[in-house]
Amino acid sequence: MSEIEWPWQYSFPPFFTIQPHAETKARQLKAWHTLVLNYFKANNLSSLDIREAHQSSLFNNSSIDRKLPPEGILLVLEDLQKSGNATPLDKTRNRWLVYWHTLEEWAAIIYSWAQANGFLNTVCTFFELVSGDDTNEQEFHGLDEEVLLRAIQVLETQKKAEVIPIDDSHGVKFF
Amino acid sequence: MDRFEYSDPRLAHGEEFLMRENGVKLYDGDSKTTFEDGELVVSNARILWGRPGDIPRGQMCVCLPLFYVVLVEEEQRTFSFSSSRKFVLHLSESRQGKPQGPVTWSQHNFIKISFKEGLHNDFLGLIQNALMTRAWERLSVAPPSASSSSQNVADRKWRSGIVGIERKIEEKHKATDESISLAFQDLSRLMNMAKDMVAISRSISTKIRDKQGDITEDETVRFKSYLLSLGIDDPVTRGAFSNQTEYFKSLAKQLAQMLEEPIKEVGGMMSMADVYCRVNRARGLELLSPEDLMSACRLMSTLQLGLCLRTFDSGATVLQLSDHNDRIIIENTAVALEESGSLSATELAKILGISVLLAKERLLTTEKQGRACRDESLEGIRFYSNLFLTKEE
């Protein structure tokens, strides 16, 4: 796992206690917001289980012996959900998908790539999109398929693409 | 019967022979024993009983030391043709470490001696005389040193058995009762005296006021400080007021007067526990109940006495100066946090010399204003400068 550059808050013990003062709390959550997305992007992660989150150094700074408690992690994720950067996967809100670009952003990025490279009105498999040679330079190369599907579904609602089931996986036709 | 011990019949040095009888029978309480038709010798220290002829030959026989005997009485003779006479000897408790005897344990605390063949001596008189002179105390047959004569007296006083125990308990109760009532008597006397003392101190202070010119200012001050160190010279008491509100009002005034200085000294705020202790320490005897203290303190803000009661969000209640300014407190606390990086309530209390409770309130107030932030961990709660708001991103 690639290490990211930790912000100064990460070694500030109060960062790991959710602050009762409203303004302070807002700043604290904002810092967490940025940190979580940076971390997920740097490590190309897309999902998170709150029950296992303590194993990751993101929420557990062993050098100052501080952990963000599960309630705190939930709060951070709910904050990410508000900005469209996370979605809960189950009703108990333990498992989450986290996107360092919102789905709308991903949709726009993928569509503009398809436009620019002449993939309109052709069918691409998901595998081609995330692992193919054509997308090597793209940000979505190596993107989680679940996240990709959700981004394409956004395009579908915009009538810019259609998801086509192919065996176990999916394909997409851009319009 | 268990008081009997085996013994040498020869008389010890200093022991005096008193009488001898034949055909003597011993009873353990009311029951017969195997000690029948024997020879009985009474000395001034013990009663010896032996099989016929044993005593003159100096063989071992049984004896009862006289120090066991509490009381001797002759049993009333029932209608009988025989010339036998019976005597009852009441005995004290068996002593620890006594020499072995023929009987190890008996439920009776008395024995009987029956003289079957008549009595030629004044047994009763001789024994009673011997008990009076207490010759055994000077003889080697005397009881071990632990049992002094005072214990002997106690032994006589306390019969064993349930009655004895009950009497002992009763006596103890009586003693406790007496000491308790004695103690309270002292206390009420003290209270009465206190009232007088207050009256005296009041009259002295008025006299001082009247004769202001006669004694120097210095002396007046010194004298007044003596009076004050005794306590408040004239405590406001409930008894002096018919009206509850009036009482609380004047109480509030007095409290404000005496507490203003100390509260200033400790930084403008004092916890109610401290207030309570200080006030009652100063009052000495006319103590104030916590309810009365609270009622009086609640009135302070309406009476504009320079002090007011304040309850924090946490429920902690303090008395603070009316012109006490939270902003300054917050500023000071924030500076203290910046200087030391982080503080727990205990650490701040140490730095400022205030109670931990107040230190925590200070930190919480500072946090409420966004000047501090908290770090909750296993070690408790610490406060840091609020870098979230002050540090540039």
TrEMBL record, chain A:
Signal peptide: none annotated. One of its GO terms (cellular component) is ESCRT II complex. The keyword Aminoacyl-tRNA synthetase does not apply. Its main location: cytoplasm. It is found in: Cytoplasm. It comes from the Eukaryota. InterPro entries: ESCRT-II_cplx_Vps25-sub, ESCRT-II_cplx_Vps25-sub_N, WH-like_DNA-bd_sf, WH_DNA-bd_sf. GO terms for molecular function: protein homodimerization activity; structural molecule activity. One of its GO terms (biological process) is protein transport to vacuole involved in ubiquitin-dependent protein catabolic process via the multivesicular body sorting pathway. The lineage of its organism: Eukaryota, Metazoa, Ecdysozoa, Arthropoda, Hexapoda. Gene3D superfamilies: Winged helix' DNA-binding domain. Chain C. Domain 1, Winged helix-like DNA-binding domain superfamily/Winged helix DNA-binding domain. This is Vacuolar protein-sorting-associated protein 25. Keywords: Cytoplasm, Protein transport, Transport. Belongs to the VPS25 family.
TrEMBL record, chain B:
SUPFAM superfamilies: PH domain-like, Winged helix' DNA-binding domain. Residues 1-143 form the GLUE N-terminal domain. One of its GO terms (cellular component) is late endosome membrane. The keyword Hydrolase does not apply. Keywords: Cytoplasm, Endosome, Protein transport, Transport. Pfam families: EAP30 (PF04157), Vps36_ESCRT-II (PF11605). It is found in: Cytoplasm; Endosome. GO terms for biological process: protein transport to vacuole involved in ubiquitin-dependent protein catabolic process via the multivesicular body sorting pathway. GO terms for molecular function: phosphatidylinositol-3-phosphate binding; ubiquitin binding. The keyword Transport applies. It comes from the Eukaryota. Component of the ESCRT-II complex (endosomal sorting complex required for transport II), which is required for multivesicular body (MVB) formation and sorting of endosomal cargo proteins into MVBs. Belongs to the VPS36 family. Component of the endosomal sorting complex required for transport II (ESCRT-II). This is Vacuolar protein-sorting-associated protein 36. It comes from Frankliniella occidentalis. The lineage of its organism: Eukaryota, Metazoa, Ecdysozoa, Arthropoda, Hexapoda. The gene is LOC113207307.
